[in-house]
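## Example pair
The file below holds two records. Each record gives the amino-acid sequence first, followed by its structure token line.
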Amino acid sequence: MNNIVLKIASVDDADEINRLVNSVYRGENSKKGWTTEAEFLGGIRITEEKIREIIERRSDIVILSVDGDNIIGCVHLENTGSYSYLGMLSVDVNYQDKGIGKLLINECERYTKEVWKLDTIKMKVINRRVELMEYYYRRGYKTTGEIEEFISGADTFGDPTEKLYFETLGKGL
């Protein structure tokens, strides 16, 4: 764990990021970790093309945690102009519970405050993800009261097997 490096993703990383994100959230491999959504969402979480699109946008970055030559974690951070939006936090199931998620969140908070000069960070969490919301609560995030219906996009999020909602969490920095 001493060799973990954080870096900003390039489009050359899109394929590996795609494999990581989909393995963390969907399918059999995801069930080894605590971040799986396989019980209530089918399909894929994201496509390589969508990741490339995110990386190429001027207002977005994808931060990677890398161990040697392997991407073991990633997070998408978007500058909305008034706050940053954190999404797609993913840590390889073999590295979960080792502080990688916390490292990535801390870097998002630092980047938001020091580079983008913003003082708020927000995210959306699926209402079924109680353990995930509790994880963020322990890091100072609070519910904002904003709730929206989960609507699946063709290339993002997957196909719900039940009625789901996004709950917005936020944190002042």
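Second record, same layout:
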Amino acid sequence: MRNLLRFLWKYSNFVLFILLEVFCLYLVFQNNSFQKAGWINSSNAFVGNVFTTVNSIKEYFALKETNEMLAAENARLRSQSLGSFAKYITTSTVINDTVLKQQYTYIPAEVVNNSVNRRNNYLTLNRGYKQGITDDMAVVTSNGIIGYTKDVSANFCTVLSILNKDAKISAKIKRFGELGSLIWEGGDYRFGLLQDIGTHVKIAKGDTIVTSNFSDIFPSNITIGTVESFVPREGGEFYNIKVRYTGNLKNVTHVYIINNILREEKKNLEERSQHD
């Protein structure tokens, strides 16, 4: 307190000057409408800019939470989309009646580890069996497929990327429905190789490649990529088709894990038929 009094006494003339200046400005703004209006407008603009800057900073730090909310909402909408339901014909007397049964549900997840420059690439996601994840669940983005779950722990899972020598995806050319197998030969992470498409098919650069309904993991008609180029394989009966992936596998951050609710039923039925 003593130091404060000493400071005020030492600079008393300067402090008095500042107080008089403030008082004079107050009288000017209070008794002159033009100056008063200018002061109010200037102060409002300054305060508005401050609030805008503060709000922008708050929005920036809230981006992670916003992305998580959007991912959850997208997962809910995808689960309710028509492609997530299987069509059943009823046994009622109106034979054209159909009902829709939920077949696929979507679980949002974040990528916490990823590789694209190895021969066998994997991703790690922040979802595990506590969140309902099991092995062999499809993993996709809004732009295309990523791979499928491999190993699962309590709160994490690894994903066998489509950039892996063991990945083999049942695919088709959307325009014709012709079935083939998508593999990765290594090298450029942007491209895969579609095989087993006959040379009788009149394919063209830019044709869309999608998942087929023969897959037990992926729903049908999910975009994989587009035809970049194609050449006849040795023997001339089939093409080697270079496919440019639509999904960005290098910079992927948010994905959806797809649960096929009817997969076990189908799998058990087929195994029982093989043993008969």
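Notes on the second record: The chain has two domains: 2-61, 105-261. The chain has five helices and 14 strands.
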